[in-house]
Amino acid sequence: MLLALIALTLQSNSVVFTNGNIYTGDPEHPHATSVMVANGRIVAVDPQFIRAPDNAIDLHGATVVPGLADAHYHLSGVGAREMTLNLEGTQSLQEFLTKVKERVDETPKGQWVTGRGWIETPWRPQAFPTRYDLDKIAPNNPVYLVRADGHGAVVNSLAIELSHITKETKNPFGGEIMHDPQSGEPNGMLLDAAHTFITPLLPKQTQADREKAILLAVQRSLRMGLCEVHIPGNSWTEIQTIRRLYSEGKIKLRIYDAAIGDPEAPRVLAQGPSVGEFDNHFTLRGLKFYADGALGSKGAALLAPYNDYNSTGFLSMKKDEVLPIWKDALRKGIQVWTHAIGDRANRTTLDWYEEALHAVPPEQRKVKDPRWRIEHSQIVTDEDVPRFHALGIIPSMQPSHAIGDLHFAQSRLGMDRLKEGYRWADFLKAGSIIPGGSDAPVEQGNPMIEFYAAVARRDLKGYSGPGWHPEQAVNRDDALKMLTLWAAYAAFEEDSRGMIKVGKLADMTVLSADIMRIPFSEIPKTHALKTIVGGEVVYDSGGK
Description:
Number of helices: 18
CATH topology of the domain at 85-201: Diaminopimelate Epimerase, Chain A, domain 1
Oligomer: single chain
Strand content: 15-25%
């Protein structure tokens, strides 16, 4: 039977990838040198007993892993980062202001200047910029600049004037207007829901802009070696744009999607899961909610006050609003994802998840194992870590957050609470699996950095200091699972993705170095040579 299958595939649409250093992820056959694919799926692994066809692809000894996935990836945000003022990597307030001034000087008077990516961690002093800093370089243009985490933003005085924010303006639910401690005036920093004072005033994104951002992000993703990304919350307009681009043959990347819970929940619940569209390239079966803000911008909901700010952050969802939706999601087979950073946000989400799960027993659910997710699961107490596994909740985590956040996490949390942060090893010991992502464009969106962060738990310069808890690092096999099999499991796709095995979709990433063996410091320098989706080489570096 196997020989007949191989003979058939050799006559149709087959290709053999040969001479590779292949890590299959399959415990029964962990290493291979060649793979045969046909009609988008793997039909043989190490088929040495047959002659490779003329269209065989020689891998020249390169390392191959199951197709990499990013389980938390804001696709259009990655593309928009390429289209707007990118403030990543600014090493000081002055460098930040210089970059912004360059854009201001190119922008007609009165028009908005927008950008994203700044973070104050390397600045001295380590302080947020203010409206007054921006006023010096942009007195005649409204300015809106989003912090790298996407939760904080700084605006100038003209933007504040246009938005009608005053000293007396009350904080919206789920957000905060920061104030100058001396004058009490708004200082230009807006957190989470407070962005809504500004965003309606910004130039509207055109359909052409939306398409360009998506396609730029798709091409960058494939270049990074990603075969699939999970989108944690987008609009129906964006979802329909993605579907149209698939229908036009413009997207080769696989996408697992969750619509933003508010306002898209009624539409998604009415339509139910949509699985495997466009030849298993697009699935929509999730709804995304937000329990709190971010640690860096001081909006994460904590059980005790911040070490450096007289606040415990804030919750950004209400129980009486989300619980009916979550119960309906269980009945309709829709997966719920919830952003939770702080220990209070994680505990609250677990409590409310537990209430919904008990209210809708398995026999009333469309999917008995709903695999609900908590995105980030960043600061979690000792007593709450085992609750994830007990309730069947997936901690969806981003390793690179630990190697960036820990430069400021001690100031936010204090040394004692750092043990609650970025607890990969503790979650694994408790029986959880961890799908790994990047939260791009918050982070770079490079799977090699995520793999490195998971195994090294050091920053990209090799630094590790007090409070970094190196015991939370994972081994290389588990780090690879985070970006392959466990990401597939979190998307209900473990039967079709996550391994190089007969019958699975033929998704593979060909790398420039053997990440399972090279020194830690060499891992971030590794890059994709080829990205293979469904047996098709959708990105080829040309060997460079």
